[in-house]
Amino acid sequence: MEHRSRTVLRAARDAVLVVAGSVAIGLVIVIAGLGWLDDMPYRGSSTEAAYIAVAVAAVAVCGFGALVGLAAIRASVSSSDGARRAGSRRSAPDR
Asked: CA Rg, the chain, in Å?
C-alpha cells in the first residue's frame, strides 16, 4: 500500500508540474500576444479577432496541459492497481 501511495504522489507531483508549465506557457502567450497587439494600430474587427486568437491559444495550451496531467495521474493509478492485483495473485497459494 505504501508503494501505491508513493506512486500516486509522484504522479500527482508530475501532473502539477505539467499543469504549472502549461499555465506558464499560456501566460507567456497572453503577455506576448497582448504586447504585440498593443503595438499594432487598431483596425476594427481584425484586431478584435487577434485578441480572440490570443485568448484561444492560451486556453488551448492550458487545457492541453491539464489533460496531460490528468492522464499522467490516471495512468499511474491504473498501473499501480494492476501491479497490486498481480502481486496478490502471485502470493496466492497454489491448489
From this structure: 22
